[in-house]
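Build the 3D complex.
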Amino acid sequence: MTPLMKLEHIDKQFPGVRALSDVSIEFYSGEIHALVGENGAGKSTMIKIILSAYKPTSGKIYMEGKEIELAGPLEASKAGIEAVHQELMLVPWLSVARNIFLNHELRLPGTGLFDIRQMEVRASELLDSFGIHIDVTRPVKEFSASVWKMIDIARVVNLNPKLIIFDEPTAILSEREVESLMKKILELKAQGVAVIYISHRLQEIEKLADKISVLRDGHHVGTMSGKGMNEDEIVKCMVGRDVSSFYSRNINVPGEELLRMEHLNLKKGQRDISLSVHRGEIVGLAGLVGAGRTEVAESLFGMNRILSGSIYYKGEKIKPHSVSSMIDRGAYLVPENRKYEGLILRFSVASNIALSAFRHWSRFFYNKKKEGLYAEQMIKTLSIKTPGRMQLVGNLSGGNQQKVVIGKAMVTESEFLIFDEPTVGVDVGAKEEIHNLMDDFVQKNGGILMISSDLPEIIGMCDRVYIMYEGKIVKELRREELSDKNIADYMLGSKGGDGQ
Amino acid sequence: MEKRKKDFFGIFFETGLYRAGILIAMCVVMSFISKDFFKVSNFLNIFRQSSVLLVLAACATGCILTHGIDNSIGGVMSLCGCACGYFLNHNVSIPVAVLLTILIGMSFGCINGLLVGVVKIPPFVSTYGVSYIANGLALILMGSDIFSGFPKTFRTLASGNVLGFPLITIIALGVTGLMYLLFQRSKFGKQVYCVGANHTTAKYSGINTLLTLFLVYIISGCGAAMGGILQVARQSAAQAGMGDTFQMTAIAAIVIGGTSMAGGEGSVFGAVIGALILTLIVNAMNLLGVPALAQSIVTGAIIVLAVLLDVQMKKIQAARAEATA
Amino acid sequence: MKNKKPQKSIIQVLGSIEPVIWMLAIIIITFSFTGEKFLSWGNTINIIKQASPFLILALAETMAVLVGQIDLSVGNNMAFCTVIIALLMRSGLPVWVCAAAGVLTGAGCGLLNGVFIARFKVPAYITTFGFGTMFYGVGSLITGGVSIPAMEDHFRFLADGSVFGIPMVMIIALLVFLAVWLLVYRTSFGRNMYGLGGNREALFLGGVDPVKAEIMIFTVIGVLVGMAGILFAARSASGHPDYGKQWEFNAIAATIIGGNSFSEGNGNIFKTMLGVLFIQILKTGLNISGVSPQSQSFLLGLIVVVAISTDVLLKARKEA
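Done.
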């Protein structure tokens, strides 16, 4: 059987970097082919070559046995190659129906004008088949990010491609939506579509993949059958060494109380929130996307007004009104979206590390010397991989960017950290390092509240876990009680609910 | 050898020194074309003419650095100029008149800060509206009158010399120097750049973004007031609408100087170069006898071309940075 | 069961009405007390006549705002078009040739803006200001700063005439509005416009060249500006480079008061129409109520700022 697409000896050279060297892979119709590798291993370069957004420096691409050379994404699309990108490819203020037919609008015969009604009918049918029942005449902006993602996926599927690339499709989906997506992908496979699946979530790959190809440092390490692979083996191939125990935690006896929230009612709709974090503890805050976890964290920093209830920090009752006042007290929020909330990508590593602390070391003049000093110190202690402190943060990998955000917190000498999705989009190696940093931090008598949608991470790292569902904390679990099933039941609201 | 040369060009581009190069090149070309150009008196003239623009541009740089804009410079300048004239004609002593005028400018800055920071109207629109309010107040105050006949001491602000150097230029350079310290050397300046480069990150990092925005617009309002006072002193007259032409020229000076309208990037030094370039063009056109009606053609074209050049330079710079990375 | 829209309570329905409609109601009621003739038929016709060319100009500005840009040259370019039209008319060319030349002039100005903004990446603020100033200069130079008469009868009919009692300007404005509606909501031009404002990457991956699309949009803006120029020239029976003064502020203010936003391409042309009505009624009302011209500028600025603030605050509150 000829492969649908075959890459042969692909090389891609960027100025100063060889992104891909001698990669040969075959993709077959009716097969789910997972592509794994750390960030910077060459996955996105490869996708862009398949989509012909990049031209390979050397090597050949065959489609259905014939050598092809496509001029750009549009031609690739015509040839039946489509991708669900990490970024959402939708226009926010056009209707759902218009977005599903974006750039492929149905037209009224004769006039060439758009046939809006026809598009709406077809879009509605299509989304129903995904199990999404929404008003397709409304702008997509009115729906949540996860619905956007599903609309985007429906848009791509609607083009009837022969090859679909899914690039981290589940990063912002809830568990329920992930399940319906999995079903759809299996359907596509049954219809004979070739699927390339990229994800950092290895359980998904374990579940879906027929074949797994591993990229490391631009090289194709190997392709293996997906059946019967376990996570440890995949990780070993990706990183090129044993990542012995995924989550290493030293459990200590909790110390004095750092934070206590009592019966908080918040402006953004969270009700009756009570939780506490002690020194030496990592406390998890689990729940679906949109359950209100970030909003609870924000209330401590004056970004979500407290309607009633009280907050105690280090035993003292406080009224949080600004981020800076909490930083001064030693609390720090490592936000969810490091690129837009945590970092200034256009600034250097050193400037970014200084962001939260420079208020304290400068009187009138900005203290450039101290900035450099602290930056060097953080680059060393957090082992941030950068050519130098003057490197722009935008040029670092996801994991190293996250370490810079942690560095920002460290230089303010924080004792209490809130991590919001600390390892999203971070590769396996760096993930382990970040987890070690967190463990280290609580060993040194700090406390951590960690918001995460990654269940293994929650189970592996936390001493205690609060589970949120629709704006309320529905359950508190101790470390011994943590299991996939147990947490998921409460997260999805099938247990607990009102009568806790 | 080869490497050193590259470094020279690197520094030349990256520090924006090439903009100063353009300024010098323009001077050289002009000295060949017009024999009246390369004279001490003409240079002093250019400095005198550029002073008001320097003050306006230097003070408004902060707004653009925060990814905002102050479209009310012209309106506030008109109002402040008229108010200053009004005070002086009503026997208010000079220091008090100046102080009151600056207070008016700052309070308009406050309104801008409020609209941009608290109400969160895009700065472009809110400051435009405020400009209308200020202009309207100036009209109500003045009608079509012109105030003149100010005390001689006041006019010395513009006409006086210190050691042969125009006093007004010394004032302008003082203000510019202060802005340089404020925006580029101080803690506050760093906050301004952070807010401009990424407002959300600045907020999450504990920077008081609201206060930063407020101060930036207040400084700009203060600059507009000072510009108004100096302009009144220069013309020995105040009338409504006197600031109209300065609005766009001030913004253009900042942008020509390499400050990005996307925020977080640029310098006060650039604004100085920009202001000098724009003044030089007007000076040159006057020397060459370009008719007044045609001058706006040249000004318009030069503004677009100067920024076009700047954008292209930045592209080359980015390409170089990528190649060396 | 599916696609069933949930029933809304009356309060929800009232709350979902654009704030500009409330503000319109408020000023209409206020002026009907302060100015006797405000609610008369003659005044209504007058407002419509005044608003018609303004609407076309504001539609042009709306396109720029929806792609996340700004056009500061609409006023000056429009005035430049009136100059060209008047000059050609004075030289004895037929009306339709003059009108076509006006539209072409506008398109040319728009094209120039578009090329510099999209292709050369010069910020729209600078480009449109620079070229606006330039065309103002060109207009001043060729007219010598005096107005050029354009008295041809057929031409004046465009502004003064009426068909079955409906003012001709209104018919033209509505036809243009309809054409723009079709363009924006039923063709790929409109998709590109919303795409440029909302998600350039999506547009690019779908095979649209964003640079070409943006140039196209600025050219269409120019065409609309040219059309507005025809109506302005017909109304004042002359062409003058100063006719554009402050019209860009009016156009931008109308666009924003209507509720259009610079970010993500959030807006539509109906909002602009409401914004235009608001500003025109405000101006006429102030006039009729006997407010002095000096105070008008102040009041206009103040009310515009308050109106936009109200709009923004109400929306922020709804979202929270």
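Chain A touches chain B at residues 15-16, 303, 322-324, 326-327, 333, 335, 340-347, 355-356, 358-359, 362-366, 395, 408, 412 (CB under 8 Å).
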